[in-house]
Amino acid sequence: MAKLTGVRINRFKAKGRDYAEADGAGLYLRVSRNGAKTFTYRYRNPQGRDTWLAMGNYPAMSLHDARKQAAEYSLQRKQGIDPAEQVQAEQAAKQAQAEERALIPTFENITRSYYQRVIARRRRRPEQFLWAMEKYVLPYIGTVRVSELSRGQVAEVINRMVDNGTPVIANRVLAMIKSVTRYAAEQGHAAMDPAAGLTRVSAGGKEKSRDRVLSREENKALLLALDADTMASRRLSPQVRTALLWLLLTGQRIGETLAAEWAHIKDGIWHIPADNTKSERAHLVHLTPQLTALLDELRPLTGTQRYIFASPNESEKPINRFTVERALKRLLTDGTLNMPSFTPHDLRRTVVTRLSDLGVAPHVIEKLVNHRMAGVMGIYNRSEYLPEREEAIELWNRYLQDLTGAGDNVVFLARR
C-alpha cells in the first residue's frame, strides 16, 4: 500500500462518489463526490463497530499533522480510550467553558449584548458599530470585567487612536464606548459608568462645522490620483477606489453609497430605498456614462454579490465607511494628494457648491442630493424635477471629465 504524499493528494479528483485512500496506521484521506478532501481515522470502537473519525480538511490540516493526530488516537486506543468519545467529551468541555465565559460580564460580552438588544434593532447599518468596536476597542479591553474597567483604560484606548492620527474617529468610538458602559451600569453589571467623565475635549477635540470645498485644481488632482493606472490607485481595492469616485460623481452620502445593491440599479437609474436614506425618503439618481463605466468595472468583481461595493474580505457585506475614510487619509498623508485635508462628506459639499457655480438652480441641487427643502418650498413644492436633475448630474460629470482632459472618452475613470 503506497503511503500518501502531497503530490498524490493533489492528484485525487472527484469521481461522482465518495472514496478513501489509505496512508496506514488507521489514517485515510476521504474524497467527497464534490472533491473535498478530509483526513479520517478509521478503527473499530469498543462495541466492534467500524468507525470513521473526521480529523480535518486538507490542506488546512497538513499530512504531517494528520499522521501525528492518528498516532495519538492509536495510543488512546491502547490505553482503553475510545477516540470518538474522547473528542466528544473535549468538545462538550469547550462548549461549557465558552458558555461559562459568556456569562462573565466582560466588556466584550456586554458590548455584544448591547449590540444584539439595542444597536441591531435600532440602527439601519448596525454592522458599523460592531466593526469599529472589534477593530479599535475589544482587542485592548474586551477581556476586562466591566465592573473593574477604569476610566484610565478607556482613555488609553482613545489616546491610542488620537496618537495614530484619527481624532474624529476617536470621538465616534468614545461615544460607542460610553453607550456600552451606560448600558452596563443600567443593567447592574457595574456600580458606575467608568467612561462618564470622558469628553470629546479629552479625546479627539471639539469638531468644528466644516466648510471645506474642493477647488477645480483639487478635483482634478483627486481624479488623476484615482485613475486606474496610477500607483496610488493600485494601492486601493477597486471597491474603495470606485466608491470615492462615486461620491464625487453623485454627491450622495457615503452611507447611502456603500449600501447600494445591484438590485437597486434599474433602467439607467440608481434607486435608493427609503430605508437607506437619512431623510427616510426614496431617492433616484440618474446614471451617467461615467457612472455606468464604474459599474462595468465592478461587475466582474461584485456582480454576483448583493452589494455593489462588496467587501473583499466579507462579500456578504459592503465595505465599511471607516475603510474609505482611512484610504482617503492615506492619500492625503503620503504625498499623493498635496492639498488640505478633506473627508468623504466634503465631496458632497463640493458637488453642491460647484453645481451652483455652474448655474444649476438651488432647488434642483437640493433635490439632486436629497435634501429637505426649507420653508414654503418644502411644504408645498412636491415636484421631483427629475429631468432637471438628470441634466444637472450629466453637466457635473462632463465638467469632471473635462478636468482630466479625457474628452469624450467616458471610461476615463475605469480600468483600461
Strand content: 5-15%
Query: Domains counted in the coordinates: how many?
Result: 3
Tell me the strand order in the biggest sheet.
1-2-3-4
**CATH class division of the largest domain:** Mainly Alpha
Mean pLDDT: 87
Short summary:
This protein is α+β, with helices and mostly antiparallel strands and 416 residues long.
Structure description:
With 416 residues, this protein is an alpha+beta fold. It folds into 3 domains: 6-101, Integrase, DNA-binding domain (Double Stranded RNA Binding Domain), CATH 3.30.160.390; 107-202, Orthogonal Bundle (DNA polymerase, domain 1), CATH 1.10.150.130; 216-413, Intergrase catalytic core (hpI Integrase, Chain A), CATH 1.10.443. 50% of the residues lie in helices and 9% in strands. The chain has 18 helices and 7 strands. It has helices spanning 6-11, 63-78, 83-103, 107-122, 127-136, 138-141, 151-163, 167-186, 216-225, 231-234, 238-250, 254-258, 289-302, 321-333, 344-357, 362-368, 375-380, 386-403, and strands at 19-24, 27-31, 37-44, 50-57, 265-266, 269-272, 283-286. A hairpin with a 5-residue loop joins β3 (37-44) and β4.
Main attributes?
hpI Integrase, Chain A; DNA polymerase, domain 1; alpha+beta; 18 helices; 50% helix; globular; Double Stranded RNA Binding Domain; 9% strand
